[in-house]
Amino acid sequence: GHYQEALENLEIALKLRKELNDPVNAGNVLNQQGNVYASMRDYDKAIELYSESAEIMNTEGNLEGQAIGYNNIGTILDEAGRFQKAIDYYTRSLEIYRQVGNNEGIGTALGNLGNSYYGLGEFEESEHYQHLALKISRELNLHENEIHNLINLSNAQNAMGKLDSAWYNCNLALQKATEMDNPQLVWISTLNLGDNFEKRGEYQKAIEHYEQALAIVEEIRISLSGEEFRSEYMAAERFAFEGMIHLLSKLHMSDPGKGYDHKAFLYAERSKSRAFLDMLSDSIHPASLREVQTEIPDEETVLLEYFLGDSSSCLWVITNEENELFILPGRNELKDDIETLRFSLTQPDLNNLEFFSESAQKLYTVLMEPAAPNMKKAKRLVIVPDGELFYLPFEALLIKAPKRGKDKDPTAFSYLVLKHAVSYGHSATILMNIPAWIQAEGVLQPNLLAFGDPEFSSQYKRLEYSAAEVEMIASFFDPSAADVFTQKEASEQQVKATPMDKYKYIHFATHGIVDEVEPDFSGLVLSMDPDRNEDGLLQAWEIAELEMNADLVVLSACQTGLGKMVRGEGLVGLTRSMIYSGASSVIVSLWSVADHSTSEFMTTLYKNLIIQKIDKSASLQEAKLSMLEDVNLAHPFFWAPFILIGNR
After folding, report:
1. What pTM did the predictor assign?
2. DSSP state of 379
3. Per-residue pLDDT tens for 319-363?
4. 440-646: which CATH number, 3.40.50.150, 3.40.50.1460, 3.90.650.10, 3.30.565.10?
């Protein structure tokens, strides 16, 4: 997990090897650097380093080192879905291993080729290469490799409809993995047997095998120490949940009265934000659909929970009286439209509105239109996104396409926000377990703690409207109930010295830094105190150690809603740290917005909250509607990034 430290140490090692004129070991270090960047999912940098390593090995005549480099490049390309390119590199690796007579390397390359052909959908080729790899693994008594080959062989055979052969090989893999006491390979084999039974139409046996596999996944997850390792493990193994949820949702569609939708929901909740749940409490269990339904307060509130799968996705629509499950397209079908929408939203150019309106209307049709009959009475929507949907401000989706002649007029669009106030959650279970705000002892009225207009180094541009922003917000409170720190006083030291648990509202008007690799190092930029040991960056891990009792924390800063995307955990960053430290809800931004318009927006938001006494999600909605009335600020670039996460 400590990638930066690893890279620094490897850079020192590389420099030393170069000074010693030791090119082969320098190549080995480059290869290790590539491994770190691969773990960080910086695939382009990893490929660059692997290529440099392979080139050095070629020059020095170290063919095995060159083959390792090519194999690593193939693995990265395979992971990125560039299967044909991966095959090219695996083939080069195979040729070298054959040239030097490295049979283990030959087996590895053959197995990898089989995996890439499987990715291309060329299952006969995949089966052929897995047979060859399996033969070598057995000749060399490489038992773990043999199990991998058997599993991959059964995958290809399952896909080809050779169900008996697939069952035989997968069952053999399970026996050998059990003998080796390798729980990772045991659950993968068990999961594949479940897939085999599903393809045979033996659904009960499939469910039993999926349940066994997921029980082992959970045991492994619990045995890991540290939130980061647990979340990374669940991200890597999320596909285990997809099989179960896909089958249960399919069974629900053919037999709606059997409770398959309830089971599928429970597994969706089990797959979401588990590491975050562990941080909040060891005793929290994933919520059932009925438990969630009892928390829906009235007919004007609807909860929409999504689960994104590769082949299909699910949407549960939950009201106080009923619930319904819809099957939606898979992740790959949605990805392009989400990216197009995100791009057009972050470019406040009227020429981009055509791209925006097309993708915003299409995504509404796919993601929300199935739920429209259940949303007729709804004033408030609580949305639990999944995967790439965390990047999506649902309020900006279009209920219908713009009228002809109005497609360049953002004030005339039928945004979702016109009908519904929206809030978000990491999972339904987490929403149910965020404590409701309780007024601090001795505090008689709503109070505010605000930080704005910090003194930055030249690295950051001053937010010239942020001082006026916090002063204007403070004017809505009784003077004795608002503590405002600006310029030099808006420091990290001041934040840590302030009793944060005494304030109902906490507001930061400053820059946000997002570290997508190590999210604990994301932070809020504050003034540096030259006499102290603080660095002026209030990082996510430091925020998590603060003790808050805030009903609402507002991060009026750039991209504070972003972070590292971890499948199954969502966006990991500042928001999670705020909720962990005791905030009931957080308002964050999904992209950078103009300083002046943000200041106006926040002023309207607090006026709604404090003067009009409107609830949080409705206050946010009203602030957005105010912007829509101003032709200069009606483009969703200005109002759509601000979202409410947590209790509404």
Report:
1. 0.86
2. S
3. 999 999 999 999 989 988 999 999 899 888 777 788 889 999 999
4. 3.40.50.1460
